[in-house]
Amino acid sequence: MSTTRHVVNRQRRLAAAESRRAAPAPAPRAPRPKPRKRPARTVRRSVPRPLLLALLALLAVLATAFAVLAHVRAEDLRDAPALRNAALTDTARTSDVKGTVGQAVDAVFSYDHTDPARTDKAADKYLTGKAVGQHREMLAPLRAQGARQKLVLTTTVTHSGVEAIDGGRARVLVFADQSNTSTAKGGSASRAAAMFAVDVVHRGGSWRIANIDTFSR
Predict the structure, then answer these.
(1) Which of 5, 54, 114, 131 is the most buried (most CB within 10 A)?
(2) Are 212 and 198 in contact (CB under 8 A)?
(3) Distance CA 140, CA 145 (A)
């Protein structure tokens, strides 16, 4: 009885071993994929709608104010006296004023004791109004001593600038060299620089000096 049970158990063990050998080997497990890291998200904070509307309204007000300011500034520039000054815009007219004033100053402020009439003719040609009396007064000492000391005064404009031209009037700043020589026995010579302004008017087709400003006051 015991022998028969051993035989049966042995047959079962053999059958189980055969069954395990015949069974297919389990497939290897595939490695689990690593979880992907989610990209970091930028946190955007939305502007509250009431604040956004307020900002837009403020920008609109600023833009309107800038437009109004620009318009007013443009009107001011159009009405500025500088734009009515032809000395800044009309080069031909400015050149004409400078040329005439240069010739006039050279002529009326030069004097030769041998030909005083030449200065008088220049004064008649280039001077008018108040400038006639001013010129006479300025040259009176020279005329009084001219014949005795044999005086020769030469004036040369070295530079001039037209400050303003308004219609038929202009103002010119003049720089000049003056040489005064006495040819009498024991005479001497001197040289000096002069600076003054003249107001000129356009009359009879030419510019004439109407006022001489020596800045003495």
Answers:
(1) 131
(2) yes
(3) 9
Q: Label residue 111 by pLDDT band (50, 70, 90).
A: very high
Write down the pLDDT at residue 32. Answer: 65
Q: Are 126 and 110 in contact (CB under 8 A)?
A: no
203 pairs with which residues across the strands?
Answer: 206
| Residue ranges of domains in the chain | 84-213
Give CA 30 to chain center in angstroms.
79
For residue 77, what pLDDT band results from cuts at 50, 70 and 90?
Answer: very low
**157 beta partners:** 176
Of 12, 10, 8, 30, the residue nearest 20 (C-alpha):
12
Indicate the CATH number for domain 84-213: 3.10.450.50
* Three-state secondary structure string covering the chain: CHHHHHHHHHHHHHHHHHHHHHCCCCCCCCCCCCCCCCCCCCCCCCCCHHHHHHHHHHHHHHHHHHHHHHHHHHHHHHHCHHHHCHHHCCHHHHHHHHHHHHHHHHHHCCEECCCHHHHHHHHHHHECCHHHHHHHHHHHHHHHHHHHHCEEEEEEEEEEEEEEEECCEEEEEEEEEEEEEECCCCCCEEEEEEEEEEEEEEECCEEEEEEEECCCC
Residue 200 bridge partners (DSSP): 170, 209
Largest CA distance in the chain: 184
CA distance 170 to 135: 19
* Size (the chain), residues: 217
